[in-house]
Amino acid sequence: MHPHDPTHGSHSLPVELYRPIARFVDEKNALCILCLASKTWYTEVMPSLYGSVSVSTGNYLDWCNTIIEKPFLGELVHSFSIIFLPKRKRDINYLVIRLALALRNLINLETLAISNGEGCEITTCQVLPAFVACSLDLRRFDCQIPWPYPSDIMTLFAFLERRPGITEFYCEPEHPDLYTPREVIVPVPLLANLTHLSCSVDLFTGLTVTPALESLQVDCGAGVEPQLLLSTLIRVQKTLRNLCLRRSTPSPFLFASEQILAGDVVRRIAEGVPMLHSLCVHDDSMRTYVRRSQLDDLVSSFAQFPQLEIISCSSYAHKSTVLIPPIDPFALSPIEVAGRFLGALPSVRTVTIPVWDRSQLCYARSGVSSSPVLGTTCEETCLGCRP
């Protein structure tokens, strides 16, 4: 019987009795399959339990079977996330079949996130066919599955082509610091409606249609010439307001004269997109700013943006890379660094800077003065540090 069948004789219990249950159910890993004959349970609790689903290939079968047997539960799912764990090829084939059967019932799905767990080397052409049954009305697609080969690229593009309503697309390379750019041409009209994009530089520069991007995060590997990115940024200058650049240099210990410093890159960005509201720069060359004169040069580069409100700076460190021994990137006290930024840039409200142990401190402007006040967290987190 359908759980919210109005003809059923059971009485609805107070919502307060159900909400504690919802709080204690681990909706990330073990989905509650209770179907009490109560309209309150269906309208108040079950949407909370099933609205956002996160599983892995280690525990996905129970969820798949539940959704296949009770399709009405699939209607409640708006966000679905799955992590693929190492499996034998025949197991992957079975996974794809069962997953496809379940996903066809997720008719209201808006957000899809797929990623590889540790040790898993699956690529998009192996698993993305399982998601063909997903809703054509997707709004956000977070694809952390690698697409290194032409067959993977074609599979990814075919998936995107059938879902023109996607406005947020996140597709980060697995090891961007070791990444060699490819020549990628995104066919028309793929990704034409994007407002938020996170990707490697080759996909961004390969866009055939220029979307009205509001937020952009780009990963540049060691072999990427900054001009390749900067020449493409000009195409989105009218709409782009938030930019995050993650840039790795061939060696973090090169002399400053042998590499392009972050300050130079910031100036080039200002030439193409001067009306940014927030700019986050994660760059290995931050380690070279150890003297006051070099810091002043970096601060002056940000002064080229008249409307800049949020600044975030740090050395580049991808989650998969080995961290380099701690080093003070500025050789100055953090509050002194923040004071120099806020004192020279009147439009800036918050500045996030790196400290010696590779963590970050966020400072906010104190009233109308330029005196920095240490905040516990930045209200508007850097695009590159999104969850």
TrEMBL record:
Domain of life: Eukaryota
Listed InterPro entries: LRR_dom_sf
Protein name, UniProt field: F-box domain-containing protein
